[in-house]
Amino acid sequence: MKQVNVKTMRAVPQNGGDMYDCIVIGAGIAGAVAARKLAEEKGKRVLVMERRPHIGGNCYDEKDAHGILIHNYGPHIFHTGLEEVFAYLSRFTDWYLFGHEVVAKVGDQLIPVPFNLNTLHMVYGKEKADRLEQKLIETYGEGSRVPIMKLRENEDADIREIAQYVYENVFLYYTMKQWGQKPEEISPEVTGRVPVLISYDNRYFQDKYQGVPANGFTEMFEKMLSHPGITVECGTDCLSRMRFADNEIYFDGEKFDGDVIYTGALDELFACRYGRLPYRSLDFRFEHYDGASYQGHSVVNYTVSEDFTRITEFKFLTGQRDTDGTTIVKEYPFAYTGAEGEIPYYAILNEENQALYEKYRALTAGMEHFHLLGRLAEYRYYNIDAMVKRAMELADRL
């Protein structure tokens, strides 16, 4: 990966703690939104420190050697029904809007996921599918999203048959690959994201707005962070300039009394003194092919075969139709160990891990101006729009 060249961003003077009112650690969506609002609306002088050599966090994208815009950390599709979030981000980008559709490869078929009424009619004959459709609508209501584990609890034999098909062909193996756990060990917050949709809507999300920034996520971040009150330094671990001790925060060796927003992994801020918080990570393997298309879809999930979970073909996400060839990425999940080059993507949510996280959070309780924000800092899952909203709310409170 290369460092993004943002001309308006400046190098950070050393021993300049008195130059800043706020320090934001992390230049992903949480940190970037918070920094922009603090600088623009509160008149704060904000330093953003980012450990990676680029801004944008996991949303970072760039053109590969073949001129195709790729998402380096896996596909990111923005989707929201929150008008204020869409309006805020639209200040920094135009959009390529589309209804994101995903299919799963089951045997020789590519079936829509989430499993919906179209999928139902692909799997069963017309007479049986019509009867099952009516039962689903009568039981749960047209347009509803029913978590697979809830569907399995239904006493009706026909509904349980649908549930078992989805469980075996869409949910079970895919989930075990993704999380390295048995389904019954996985948090309901995760299993709730695998529903049966009682609708003919093939879109993966049902939000009003769906798409990606027209010229890429990175350009959106560049515009967001381009403000006279914001200084960005990439390639800097915050611990190389900051120290957290005795409920005090030190920056360049001097006490810092301004607000600090931390979006990184909380256990790593304290050298994992209680043990490492468990995460799932991903190994991305990019491949380029000649020809107009590799799979004809933006995302194909491999729910009953292969060691990888899905293949993304980027030109179907970004609207690139005039490129020669096509670039795909395969995703292989594995357990995060903290080794160099690994990235913690998904918190593994259970009572034991939450208790460990709370021990780390308690270490920050005495720091009045220290704020945790984001997937890693809060050890939970957020969609992009929810993260934007939380960042906006935090900036408004400060």
UniProtKB/TrEMBL annotation:
Keywords: FAD, Flavoprotein, Isomerase. It holds the Pfam family NAD_binding_8. Its cofactor is FAD. Gene3D superfamilies: NAD(P)-binding Rossmann-like Domain. Transmembrane segments: none annotated. PANTHER family: UDP-GALACTOPYRANOSE MUTASE. NCBIfam families: UDP-GALP_mutase. This is UDP-galactopyranose mutase.
